[in-house]
């Protein structure tokens, strides 16, 4: 039997306590100084202690590899992107399978469009592929397109399902050492993270047990499956919640289905056309990536196999249609993003038993784009407060690498609706701090709960927005085992 005594930690807003851990579970919580020492005794000296944090939406391989890509985030025009890529070439930036890959451009507010010719003229001899900040599109030159087997139009952009499939193929051809996964997992633990939901479009249910066996042990992982591997998972007898490794760190997750695009790419499926779009154009209101009938078929098959759904829906029509399918099937599930929701659909989340998995940093990144492309509707965009008040269950995530894998960023944005020196955007949609914290964890500080814990230098309830964002984590424990320790 393994044991650990955490002496004099302070639950959020409470009095100091001793927490005794046995065999990975919280065995007792008693007033500070009254617990008999069991195992190692660690003095917390009044630091705050609470449940460890989860990031409910991560593309982990993309997050790992993002540090190896040219950073084009923060650019404001195609020419600025070209300048950033030129500087990277001069500096000897690494390439992936011979291709110079950049990440992070957001063209939703650009006044000059992307073109294939601009990249061809600037980089005639170098394959260049630029991944959009939301992962839903790629801008490339002709050499880059050839390497990916794509044929972009004059814009140089390929988006949605065609792009996602190409990015998956390209990523699989790139070698990522297991040590890189371990380093990024350790970095997450230093921010208080004990678990992630990995929605990477790869065979997660096969790859994650291998990583754990190779020593990547800082996180719990819910390993999702995409439609192209659903039958493989069902044939293997895997059901949502099943453990996939001997230590119980990896759990079979949900079926991930993407039914529309994104706001920045103007492909989120909405009831109303995007400003400036030809109302008669097939995609004036966005892109429906999966038909309602096909979604119904996929989810019915998943239900038969015991695999629960997690469906990407950003636009208000996408959300309405997904809720309708889940309601028809009598199937609880998660809607990922839920960025634009019609007024009449908020209450349906609770009625159908759905979880809204949202990414508060996206609201801060995309507030200006939303004001432009969802003009007149932003009172129900990124409407975390409305979802909460309607009774919907919430989970917070990052969508890393779209935003950093750091729950404190999500918590700060969810509770303030602001970042930097800008005023709060739709402050009526703020979440209470206790709600944001609960939506960022899966356990509580209580006897019998997993000893997945975080020790903080400050009580979150005594912090302002910026203090929350930059929270100092003194220790993280996973099943009573330190994954980060600075005490």
Count of DSSP strands = 21
Average pLDDT value? 97
Distance between the termini: 23 Å
Task: Name the CATH homologous superfamily of the largest domain.
Answer: Metal-dependent hydrolases
Proportion in helices: 25-40%
What is the SS-derived class?
alpha/beta
What fold name goes in the CATH topology slot of the largest domain?
TIM Barrel
Radius of gyration: 23 Å
Residue share in β-strands: 15-25%
This entry's quaternary arrangement is: single chain
Major β-sheet profile: 8 strands, mixed
Q: Globular, elongated, flat, extended or rod-shaped: what is the shape?
A: globular
CATH top-level class of the largest domain: Alpha Beta
Assigned CATH architecture of the largest domain? Alpha-Beta Barrel
Total of domains? 3
Which stretches are low in confidence, meaning pLDDT under 50 for 5 or more residues running?
A: none
The DSSP helix count reads: 16
């Amino acid at each position: 039997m393994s044991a650990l005594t955490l002496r004099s930690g302070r639950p959020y807003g409470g009095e100091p306590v001793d927490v005794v851990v046995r065999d990975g579970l919280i065995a007792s919580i008693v007033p500070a100084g009254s617990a008999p020492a069991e195992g190692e005794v660690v003095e917390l000296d009044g630091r705050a202690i609470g449940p460890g944090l989860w990031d409910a939406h991560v593309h982990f391989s993309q997050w790992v590899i993002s540090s190896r890509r040219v950073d084009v985030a923060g650019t404001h025009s195609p020419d600025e992107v070209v300048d950033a890529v030129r500087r990277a070439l001069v500096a000897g930036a690494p390439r992936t399978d011979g291709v110079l890959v950049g990440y992070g451009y957001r063209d939703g507010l650009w006044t000059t469009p992307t073109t294939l010719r601009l990249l061809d003229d600037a980089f005639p001899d170098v394959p260049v592929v630029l991944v959009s900040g939301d992962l839903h599109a790629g801008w490339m030159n002709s050499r880059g397109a050839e390497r990916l087997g794509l044929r972009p139009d004059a814009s140089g952009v390929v988006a949605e399902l065609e792009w996602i499939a190409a990015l998956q193929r390209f990523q699989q051809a790139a070698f990522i050492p297991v040590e890189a996964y371990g380093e990024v997992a350790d970095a997450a633990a230093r921010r208080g993270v004990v678990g992630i939901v990995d929605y990477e479009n790869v065979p997660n249910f096969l790859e994650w047990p291998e990583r754990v066996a190779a020593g990547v042990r800082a996180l719990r992982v819910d390993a999702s499956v995409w439609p192209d591997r659903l039958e493989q998972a069902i044939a293997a007898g895997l059901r949502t919640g099943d453990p996939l490794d001997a230590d119980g760190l990896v759990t079979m997750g949900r079926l991930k289905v993407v039914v529309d695009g994104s706001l920045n790419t103007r492909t989120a499926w909405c009831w109303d056309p995007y400003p400036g779009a030809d109302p008669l154009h097939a995609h004036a209101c966005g892109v429906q990536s999966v038909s309602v009938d096909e979604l119904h078929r996929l989810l019915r098959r998943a239900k038969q196999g015991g695999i629960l759904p997690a469906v990407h829906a950003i636009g208000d029509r996408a959300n309405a249609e997904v809720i309708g399918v889940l309601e028809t099937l009598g199937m609880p599930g998660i809607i990922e993003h839920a960025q634009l929701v019609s007024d009449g659909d908020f209450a349906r989340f609770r009625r159908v038993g759905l979880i809204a998995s949202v990414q508060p940093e996206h609201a801060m990144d995309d507030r200006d784009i939303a004001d432009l492309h969802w003009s007149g509707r932003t009172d129900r965009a990124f409407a975390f407060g409305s979802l909460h008040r309607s009774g919907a269950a919430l989970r917070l995530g990052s969508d890393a690498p779209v935003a950093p894998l750091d729950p404190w960023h999500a918590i700060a944005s969810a509770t303030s609706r602001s970042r930097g020196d800008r005023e709060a955007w739709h402050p009526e949609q703020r979440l209470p701090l206790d709600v944001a914290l609960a939506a960022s964890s899966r356990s509580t500080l209580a006897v019998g709960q997993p000893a997945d814990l975080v020790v903080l230098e400050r009580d979150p309830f005594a912090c302002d927005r910026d203090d929350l964002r930059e929270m100092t984590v003194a220790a993280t424990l996973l099943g009573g085992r330190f994954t980060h320790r600075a005490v």
